[in-house]
Amino acid sequence: MTVILIGASAGGCSLARNDGSFAQMEGNDVTGSVVAKPVNAAPTEADLAFARNAASDVLTKGSKDSSQPWENPSTGARGSVTPLAAAYTAEGRTCRDFLASYVNGNSESWLQGAACRAGGGHWEIQSLKPWRRS
Question: Alpha-carbon distance 124 to 35, whole Å?
Answer without folding.
Answer: 39
